[in-house]
Amino acid sequence: MKEQQDKSTVFKVNRRDFLKTGTLGMTGLMLGVQFSCSDKSKLLTGNPDVVFTPNIFISISGSGDVTLIAHRSEMGTGIRTSLPLILADELEADWKRVKIEQAVGDSKYGDQNTDGSYSVRMFYEPMRRMGATVRLMLEQAAAREWGVDVSECKAKNHEVVHTSGKAFGFGYLAEKAVDLPVPEEGSLTLKTPEDFNYITKKTSIYDLQDIATGSAVFGMDYDLPGAKVAVMSRNPEAGPGIRSFDGEVALQVPGVLQVFTLDNPGFPTTHDKALGGVVVVADSTWAALQGKKALRIQWESGINADYDSESFQQDMLSRARKPGKVRREQGNVTEAMSRAVKTVEGEYLVPHLAHAPMETPCAQALVTDNVCEVWAPVQDPQWTRRAVAAALGFDEDSVKVNVTLLGGAFGRKSKPDFAVEAALISRQSGFPVKLLWTREDDIQHDFLHFLSAQYLKVGIDENNRVNAWLHRTVFPPIGGTSNLSEKEPSGFEVSMGHVDNPFDIPNMSCETQEAPAKVRIGWLRSVANIHHGFAVGCTLDEVAEARGVDPAQNLIELLGADRKIDFGALTADFWNYNEKIEEFPWDTARFRNVIEVVRDKSGWGKSMPKGSGMGIAAHRSFLTYVACVVEVTVDDKGQIRIPMVHYAVDCGVPVNPERIKSQFEGGAAFAASLALKSRISVKGGKVEQDNFDGYQVARITDAPYDTLVHIVESSEKPTGVGEPPVPPFIPALCNAIYAATGKRIRQLPISLG
Amino acid sequence: MATYQLIVNNQAVEVDAQPDTPLLWVLRDNLQMTGTKYGCGKALCGACTVHLDGSPVRSCSTPISTVGDKKITTIEGYSEPVVHRVQEAWIAEDVPQCGYCQSGQIMSAIALLEQNPSPTDDDIDQAMAGNICRCGTYVRIRRAIKRAAKGGNQ
Ligand code: FES
Ligand code: FES
User: Fold this and answer.
1) pTM of the full predicted structure?
2) What kind of fold does domain B2-76 have according to CATH?
3) Which of B97, B105, B140, B145 to mutate to test the interface with A (most CBs of A within 10 A)?
4) Judgement on whether residues A155 and A77 belong to the same structural domain of the protein
5) Mutation to probe ligand 1, out of B21, B42, B74, B101 (largest number of atoms < 8 A from CB)
6) CATH number for the domain that contains residue A168
7) Is the pLDDT reported for residue A29 higher than 50?
8) pLDDT tens sequence across A154-190
9) Interface predicted TM-score (ipTM) over 0.95
């Protein structure tokens, strides 16, 4: 498959390619079959050296072990379990006999960019077909052995059983199936949901035991023989290089082996180039860190040396107050607003945010002659491979990228800059290296979430109907990190909670303004849905109050009649998360349903003691429909506690409900960080925070005490759940705080002081 | 460089390190025991939690020269029943997401339960507030601690 993939473009897999690119046939020795079972009616295993590899994702050995490839990166969502689970289910493999192998970065696997909450959405069908194909081959092999019709043979839990009751194990059949042609897609029958063994059932993650005992392998844990440790000092301003430096003192630190520089990219930096700076290579991590401390560096100043995020945001806000570029327009907002009998108006500010995964960026690399091998916790191993190859001047075939477990990522580790650094350092030093980003490096040199300013104004007419909606959003786009001319949000960014407003309001104007990127801007879990969800969800609560309608009822009323919205006809900017709107419609009935479910399950409207309250919000993102109710208590010192969160989610077929729940529990805690604690500020081009004291995140005392997830039963195509929990939580929390205190929240992080 | 005799997970080991080297890096670099994680280097996140004579410490901020003959215990090294109960509870509640913080969480939880076999919510808050989980597994961490406290039953 040829792949020209921009990270914001979802790569569509040609579903047939899986089988075409797979190696048909077997590896290993063809020896005489040894029966391991004396009951000849039930031969379970065959020659253990025979491996049947009908496609690149599945292999079955003569001993009956099934090895499935996990081709997407595990960063905590459970995807390394959930996709192989789909394969195993259709294959009728016994999960206990399944081993999972992590794929290297290679386009033969199709899309590996584990980002944008689309792994299950994109691969549910292909995985099922692949599993079903191999199941059919095993059934055909058994039928041939028995000399019966294949319709009399059915795979069941690692065996193929004949109607007479006799059975062959998968191990025995492995060798028998190797010469069979791959069946036509038309001849496959997918299982019906009643026959699912794993899909929609609870399954623990594959790595659970290893994690609980400390043996799981993350980025720095892989044992690369002879590796030296590298750390770097980078320009606090993203892009510019070094004026002068003195590495002498650093070289005197015992254990420090080398000090040298890497080239800087200038600004814009792009999302995949190394930032450059001064490298310290040492025998041990501690020596490297001491060496880094001893560096004396004069940094160059670049075009963003005077960047001050606070004044920049104020400037963005003043622009948000003025008419901007219209991205979606219906009716005449100005005229309708002038007829309004009541208006609701608000300005919303969200700061820059850092990803701060618990595992900082890190990578190991070994470059010899013209070959490079990388071991790294990366979300997108194919992009990593391309970026490393480009930086080294190698062709891609000379670069191998192994993917370790990711200690959290949230979008940070889809950018391969740190793996590129490791490769460059290995080449220049001549050593295999382990590159560690310190927490300070991570927070000071992240690809930050956009800071934003928004202005909303809503008009309510004499019939108490909302007749005008004006929403202006200003934030520096992701594209500005690669291209200075990109100063205004692109279609995909305004389609995350801005122009994709589903409420049935006759007069609407959605506008943007320019704001150039001054730091590296990247995508953070749920991206522009964070700030748009916040502003829209809070505004709707104010609208409910102005209308004198219950907030849940208000959402349902504003939504209007059930319908599928053709956003493409409403705005040229609409983007449906890279899916056709016909395939994944914007279905207001599903949206209404999650609102109703969360309302009913949460005990919405119950009376709450003084100082506590409930808030509601709903948001569709990444094609998944979510509604959220947050309960809050606020004491007299302004201390906020969140005793309970309810989510209702419609993500189509819930493939692994256990992990869906954990993503929502975690998403609530992640969003609680953004709402209550986290803020990055930049002064003089330099990020002011550098560790968890300055850049705070939710702890057990800040996060919700409990989160209940109500999954809507559905047979619709499955959609992702990694990001969708985040957007509605923040406004639901703010609305709850309003209910508890009477104070409206217009700025994050929340301050009740 | 100095030589230190350490007792790690009930085994005597000898390591050469600079006196100010944090125990975290001795474990990871000298002893290749990678279950203990780096998260902040400043005693702010708890990812590096190990036990010294049964008390939880942040190994990133514990210079090797201060360890002396105290027994070091890491996630890899436990055999007491309470540990199995905690690890089993972690598995039963499917606590981990990415898993990176979990060694530290489990070590903090074990220390809590050793001192306080039936902790209240407040006790859990106090003992666990130093351990960040960016994936947000806090609800299940609390549940797993309660399960382990009840001897593994929920
Ligand atoms: S690494 Fe020691 S507390 Fe964070
Ligand atoms: S499970 Fe990922 S940081 Fe805790």
Assistant:
1) 0.94
2) Ubiquitin-like (UB roll) (3.10.20)
3) B97
4) yes
5) B42
6) 3.30.365.10
7) no
8) 999 999 999 999 999 999 999 999 999 999 988 999 9
9) yes
